[in-house]
Amino acid sequence: MSKNLNIFFAASPLHLICLNEYRVKYKIKEFKLILLLHRVNEHALKQIFLTLEILEFKDYFIFWIPRNKVLRYFYEMILIYYLKISNPKTFFKFLIIDFRNNFMHSLRRFFKNSEFILIDDGFYTFVAQNNFMSKNYFLPVSSYRKLKGLIVKKLYFGNSYKRILSTPIKLYTIYFDEIKSSYLIKNDLSELRKKINFKNIKFNENEVFFTGTRMVEKGALKIEEELDLILAANNYWKKKGKIMKYVGKRSTSNEKLEFFNKHGIKTLQFELPLEIVFTQIQIIPSHICGLGSTLQKSLKILFKDKINCYYIDLYDFFQKENKSYSIPHKNEVEETARYYSKNSDNITTISIN
């Protein structure tokens, strides 16, 4: 007789928030939570472990991702083998992350009769739907065209590539207003919203949170170039009588925050994701500004019209400045984020120069 087993994957606080919503909504009490983590950023790890504690995830297995890609592949295959041999005659339901992750999709090769649900991975969920899933491609096909991609395709998918490519997966997402799909499962963050005590909350009309970027960390911008943008945003809001604070991401270094502080930018860094932070504090900024972020969707779901979201077009800003900037090349995420932010009824595009 076969049994059922839920396998949850997570690598970020947002994943954990989504998983918590799913398990509560569908009353799932038995599951295996597998964390895919890097031993790199202590602050990022701390944020994940604190989120686990807040959401009361008590049992989990940590899969430490090796830096060496060959070693990583073998470790991933060992994990698959372990899941198969330790759970014979089992129907699996996998909640997977990151549409670009080859290991996640390789599970579809080895567990072909199982159910797969993709949860939100930042803004890339919208990109995956817009660029691939809406066209009935259930793999990031553009990643497998060059030699490296062909090798990855063979290693992870073997002879199952065409089957995996054409086999639909479900999508559990907060972008339920924007995505039209028969495979969509709505995530309205109702469980997290229950934690908000609206009677005791005050919204500060004079405060703006600028949500941090990873442009410097990715090497797409010099820190001086990002500073120019942040200073311009700060001046924009100052003219409107508001105080702007730059909120660092999980990956933001203390050195970067100190650099901004020295140039007159107020900075903050929280030990939890803002979605959870805003359920715990009593004074919340009325304005969220940034270069395109999941927060501009998640916070609107949680707080409706109490929070206003603003988008700054990074490329427009640098093109208007009379300086020699190393303007980063737009990838598919930035292109789609730009399109989404400029066309969303919930986001106002502003020009800061």
Number of strands: 13
* CATH topology title of the largest domain: Rossmann fold
User: Which sequence of SSEs, written as H and E, runs from N to C?
Assistant: EHEHEHEHEHHHEEHEHEHEHEHEHHE
**Structural class by SSE content:** alpha/beta
Query: Architecture of the largest domain in CATH?
Result: 3-Layer(aba) Sandwich
Global outline: globular
Mean pLDDT over all positions: 91
Please identify the top-level CATH class of the largest domain: Alpha Beta
Explain the overall architecture.
The chain has 14 helices and 13 strands. The protein is of the alpha/beta class. The protein has two domains: 3-193, Rossmann fold, CATH 3.40.50; 198-350, Rossmann fold (3-Layer(aba) Sandwich), CATH 3.40.50. The strands form two sheets. A seven-stranded parallel β-sheet has the order 3-2-1-4-5-6-7, sandwiched between helices. The radius of gyration is 21 Å and the shape is globular. The chain starts with a strand and ends with a strand.
Identify the notable features of this structure and list them briefly.
Rossmann fold, 353 residues, alpha/beta, 14 helices, 2 domains, single chain, 6-stranded parallel β-sheet, 7-stranded parallel β-sheet
